[in-house]
Design brief:
Blueprint lengths: L1 E5 L8 E5 L10 E10 L1 H7 L9 E2 L3 E9 L11 E5 L9 E4 L1 E4 L6 H5 L2 H14 L6 E5 L4 H12 L3 E5 L5 H7 L2 E3 L5 H8 L6 E4 L6 H8 L5 E3 L3 H7 L2 E2 L10 H10 L7 E6 L3 H10 L5 E5 L2
Parallel strand pairs: 9-10, 9-12, 10-11, 12-13, 13-14, 15-16
Antiparallel strand pairs: 1-2, 1-4, 3-5, 3-7, 3-16, 5-6, 6-8
Helix pairs in contact: 3-4, 6-7
């Protein structure tokens, strides 16, 4: 099969499409003929040498396609099913991928649409769980218009929370369409939030990593009520929890998201698609743009 890979660290030019042996599913896993695979910031962090140090490395943790091989013990999928989910070995940007966690593709979505979901919804749901966001609470999302931020907004609204979201003014109407109350980010954030919520907020989620943790801590009444997905150094400095997948993943959201999608309460736009062979172009766009939505590779 053909797959995206790099054999040295560097810029997008180190990416190549290579022939690799076909993978096969283990117990509880399925293999899919990949139709679309999501592209995430972790991909260019890996390619740049900021994460795993072994070489060579494949890419891709989320994909959608058609089941063509079942692992032992699989009873909730059949060959020919349309599914989406996680490739835990990080090799989803390929013609074939093994999924360890998967769910049926919602009927109203195409493969590119659903391939954009797994990483964003798992990250968002995990952070909301860690914060204990529930009905009646007020949540501030710093960086609410990107794929993870907008997922957090919509999942929190579905839980019955009031959501205030930071974004540039150009994205305020978009946030309103998701059910959030928008405010501009940057200097004076705390005052703008208090104009909407005079006593502050119950919880705060930092998706942007823009140095806003001190204000989020003030607004939420202490670091215990704040989680960041993007500011590791700030989390250590201010005693805030840094959310990462190795502390337990919220994979249950794969099975739950279909109901929200079909009822019109959840969507993540696809910003741009690329053929698998143009994975380097996808990296260039992702690294240099503030996108509303996800980048997706089309396969097959």
């Amino acid at each position: 099969m053909k797959a995206a890979r790099f054999s040295r660290f560097g810029g997008p030019e180190v990416l190549e499409i290579v022939d690799l042996p076909d993978p096969h599913p283990g117990p509880g896993q399925v293999r899919i003929a990949v139709r679309a695979a999501g592209v995430n910031p972790s991909d260019w962090k890996k390619r740049s040498g900021l994460m795993d140090q072994e070489l060579p490395q494949t890419l891709g943790y989320e994909a959608a396609g058609i089941v063509d091989e079942l692992g032992a013990g699989v009873a909730d999928a059949a060959v020919g099913d349309r599914v989406f989910g996680f490739s835990t070995d990080g090799a989803a940007q390929a013609e074939l991928a093994v999924l360890s966690y998967y769910a049926p593709v919602p009927p109203s979505l195409g493969f590119a649409d659903v391939a954009a979901l797994p990483a964003a919804i798992e990250t968002a749901a995990r952070a909301l769980d860690q914060l204990g966001v529930a009905s009646g609470s007020t949540l501030l999302v710093n960086g609410a218009s990107g794929s993870v931020g907008s997922a957090a907004v919509q999942l929190a609204v579905a839980r019955g929370a009031r959501v205030i979201g930071t974004a540039s003014p150009a994205n305020h109407d978009y946030l309103r369409s998701l059910g959030a109350e928008p405010v501009a980010y940057g200097a004076g954030l705390a005052g703008r939030v208090r104009a909407l919520a005079p006593s502050g907020v119950d919880r705060a989620l930092d998706v942007a990593g823009s140095g806003a943790l001190p204000e989020l801590i003030e607004l939420a009444g202490g670091p215990v009520h704040v989680v960041t997905l993007a500011d590791f150094a700030g989390a250590q400095q201010h005693g805030v929890r840094f959310s990462r997948g190795d502390s337990g993943r919220a994979v249950y959201v794969l099975s739950e998201i279909g109901g929200l999608v079909e009822s019109g309460r959840f969507a993540i736009p696809v910003a741009q698609t690329f053929p698998l062979a143009e994975v380097a172009a996808a990296h260039r766009v992702g690294e240099h743009g503030h996108l509303r939505g996800k980048l997706v590779l089309l396969v097959g």
